[in-house]
Amino acid sequence: MKFSQFFSLLALLFFLISCSSDSETDLKPEQNGTPPVSTQIPTDTYFPPNARTNEWESISLKTLGWNEGKLNNLYTFLDTNNTDAFIVLKDGRIVIEKYFGNFKSGDNHTWNSAGKNITAMLAGIAQEEEHLNITDATSTYLGEGWSNMSLEQELNITIKDQLTMTTGLDYTVDDTFCTDLECLSYLNNPSTFWYYHNAPYTLLDDVIANATETDFNSYFSKKIKEPIGMQGMFIKVGYNNVFFSSARSMARFGILNLNQGNWNGISILSDQTYFNAMTNTSQNINLSYGYLYWLNGKNSFRLPNSVNEYKGSLIPNVPDDLYAGLGLNDQKLYMVPSLDLVVVRMGDASNEELLGPSSFDNEIWELLNAIMKE
């Protein structure tokens, strides 16, 4: 069975067993009332209420001066490319929200590697609370012997190396998701080589859990999920710890990012030095990678499953200040500060199965740009 097929089966199981107490209520308009629609372009950021209802302010394409005639082109493209959910927010307000097939607004979907953004922010929160420092050796929180390396080699790897994909662990193993000791061997000195290696990323969850002396899901729930009204949870899938939620919950996390860790006056991540480092180039090997965030507008980029460097911007059709969570099978969380936009896409792979960036990114934004032109 392919890895992506296993994900799909698990996602289906999660949909079936999800409790209604941990999902946003999927009410029909006549049951919940029609959410307010802005008739003038607001200048403030809207934060949807945390109550588990469908209430969420929207703004029309007409009010924004966007080209409504191009919307069907986008919907057709998304539908024919295996999309389940698609959301566009402007200043926190819903401009576009569309579900395809049998998928509904309250249904949960895997984020795959887009969930790395959550882990990166949790690491920053844990550092702010002085549970850890990202310059600490990973062994401080995993103990000695967490890998197949010598003690000296282990001690050279830091939390920051895990956040930036520069641990130097051997990526030529049969399974780069494997966190067993025999899969974690030395290949390069830390901070000297970039490779999209999922095993050391997954171990970050244990680092954070051990540093905070709590369960990883519990820490996430207390620090991010409950304060901003998200739902969903991390579930162990093979070696991976994968996040599942509704599309609207992903959109909430996007709003939190656009507001640099602040939610309607509540400080979720106060450390702006960490936030800026997280959403900007973190090392000089892959300029388009922060702390588990993909970055646009750089001179070059590297991709998962490759050691090659490619010249140019990661997604040419998007403003340079975009940063994103990009997951297997085209799970997308785009955040564009200059446009005050959050864009969410969930579904199956549009074309080939890729771990992060894909040609789908540029194609989506070509169609979005056509809509946003007056």
Automatic annotation (TrEMBL):
The keyword Transport does not apply. Residues 1-23 form the signal peptide. InterPro entries: Beta-lactam-related, Beta-lactam/transpept-like, Diverse_Enzym_Activities. Pfam families: Beta-lactamase. It comes from the Bacteria. Keywords: Signal. Residues 85-298 form the Beta-lactamase-related domain. The keyword Translocase does not apply. This is CubicO group peptidase, beta-lactamase class C family. It comes from Maribacter ulvicola.
